[in-house]
Amino acid sequence: QVQLVESGGGLVQAGGSLRLSCAASGSIFSINAMAWYRQAPGKQRELVAAITSGGSTNYADSVKGRFTISRGNAKNTVYLQMNSLKPEDTAVYYCNVVCRPYSDPRYLEVWGQGTLVTVSS
């Protein structure tokens, strides 16, 4: 079974920075892609940033130039560096991993429990 553990959320003033971390654990054969999504109150969950196993990245227009997604050296960890934060970035941020466990030939989508980011004006 694959599990994701997120950390790094919190309260920050507008213009500040936060770094989110997500570590995948379990019997993982390979990871295809890792991503961060967010869901603000009353809104649908949306993709914030994604990174493939080859290192290609994709960002939501609203965070381009401010957020950076990266993977750790162990490749089972993903980070989201968030700079120049705005009140509209306030949301629960979820880690998402597409991976193949040793026990299953299929790629599965796994979600973290979410971490709250609050940006005050």
Description:
The chain is mainly β and 121 residues long. 0% of the residues lie in helices and 59% in strands. The chain has no helices and 11 strands. Strands 2, 4, 5, 6, 9, 10 and 11 form a 7-stranded mixed beta sheet that branches. Strands 1-3-8-7 form a 4-stranded antiparallel beta sheet, with no helix packed on it. Strand 5 and strand 6 form a beta hairpin. The protein is elongated, with a radius of gyration of 14 Å. The model has no long low-confidence stretch (mean pLDDT 95).
What brief labels describe this structure?
single chain, 121 residues, mainly beta, 7-stranded mixed beta sheet
Q: How far from one another are the termini?
A: 41 Å
Count the helices. How many? Answer: 0
Mean pLDDT: 95
Note the run of SSEs as H and E. Answer: EEEEEEEEEEE
Shape call: elongated
Number of strands: 11
Largest sheet: 7 strands, mixed
Please give the radius of gyration in angstroms. Answer: 14 Å
Portion in strands: over 45%
Low-confidence stretches: none
What structural category arises from helix and sheet content? mainly beta
State the share of residues found in helices, binned by percent.
under 10%
Write the layout of secondary structure elements.
Layout lengths: L2 E5 L2 E4 L4 E8 L2 E12 L6 E7 L4 E3 L7 E5 L5 E6 L8 E11 L6 E4 L3 E6 L1
Parallel strand pairs: 2-11
Antiparallel strand pairs: 1-3, 3-8, 4-5, 4-9, 5-6, 7-8, 9-10, 9-11
